[in-house]
Automatic annotation (TrEMBL):
This protein's name: Redox-sensing transcriptional repressor Rex
Keyword ATP-binding in annotation: no
PANTHER family in the cross-refs: REDOX-SENSING TRANSCRIPTIONAL REPRESSOR REX (PTHR35786), REDOX-SENSING TRANSCRIPTIONAL REPRESSOR REX 1 (PTHR35786:SF1)
Entry binding sites for NAD(+): G90, A91, G92, N93, L94, G95
Domain CoA-binding stretches: 79-180
Biological role stated in the UniProt entry: Modulates transcription in response to changes in cellular NADH/NAD(+) redox state.
Protein location: Cytoplasm
UniProt signal peptide: none
Primary location group: cytoplasm
Assembly with partners or alone: Homodimer.
DNA-binding region: 16-55
Length: 217
């Protein structure tokens, strides 16, 4: 099945499956059933079987899924069977923390370059990376085959940085700034908004019980 036909909801669940399958593999578990996956990941086993059936018939009745085979297949579908190089722009508090966080390395995602516009940050060392000036973005993206960009600049600078990333050839952006990025349709933007998540949590904290009661009426 072609990747562009997989629904967004399925694509978002695949990394969840992968994380748990990697954990099973580390524990030398060789097979897993959709029931076990469902229980562990709090998902409906029928949904899991349906998701995985998108990619062919892997499951064997009574035995379940072969963990290594499934890991390979999902990595292939997510295109992380090859290293995906990532650039981060905005070497402030959040940018430095993300650049130091290397848990995505095992899934072949690697921040290979960090950029900032501030002379106070340029030349600063974050682990093995040296913060580069923005005028090196385009050439570095080309040389290192960078495919994904992470934006950790203030909200009022985010669109400008996104435009520069897109002009440099980056095809997908993860935006941490609390602003909506406009981009051509072929550019994929994912936003992660910590503040709105926190605000909506506060609402449920106060209203969760009442809401449930209302649902029953
Ligand atoms: N710190 C957090 O916990 C947190 C959490 C969620 C979201 N955010 C969001 O992430 C973004 C960064 O937050 P922060 O706390 O790291 O800010 P920060 O001020 O510490 O860092 C921002 C960095 O971006 C750089 N910058 C500004 N304009 C730029 C440009 N045009 N090109 C390149 N670099 C530029 C600055 O020089 C600075 O180093 C903000 O939009 C913030 O709302 C932060």
């Amino acid at each position: 099945m072609k990747a562009d036909k997989i629904s967004e909801a399925v694509v978002r669940r695949l990394p969840v499956y992968l994380r748990y399958l990697n954990e099973l593999h580390k524990r030398e578990v060789t097979t897993v059933s959709s029931q076990e996956l469902g229980q562990k990941l709090d998902l409906n086993p029928a949904q899991i079987r349906k998701d995985l059936a998108y990619f062919g018939d892997f499951g064997r009745k009574g035995i379940g899924y072969d963990v290594v085979y499934l890991i390979d297949k999902i990595r292939h579908i997510l295109k992380i069977d090859q290293q995906i190089n990532v650039a981060l722009v905005g070497a402030g508090n959040l940018g430095q923390a993300l650049s130091n966080y290397n848990a995505y390395l095992k899934d072949n995602m690697k921040i290979v370059a960090v950029f900032d516009s501030s002379p106070a940050k340029i030349g600063h060392q974050i682990n093995t990376l040296t913060v580069q000036p923005m005028d090196e973005l385009r050439e570095t993206v080309r040389q290192l085959h960078i495919r994904i960009g992470i934006i950790t600049v203030p909200d009022f600078e985010a669109q400008r940085v996104a435009d520069e990333m897109i002009e440099s050839g980056i095809g997908a952006i993860l935006n941490f700034a609390p602003t909506i990025i406009k981009a051509p349709p072929h550019i994929r933007i994912h936003a992660t908004d910590f503040t709105t998540d926190l605000l909506s949590l506060a609402y449920y904290l106060e209203n969760g019980k009442d809401d449930n009661e209302n649902d029953d009426q």
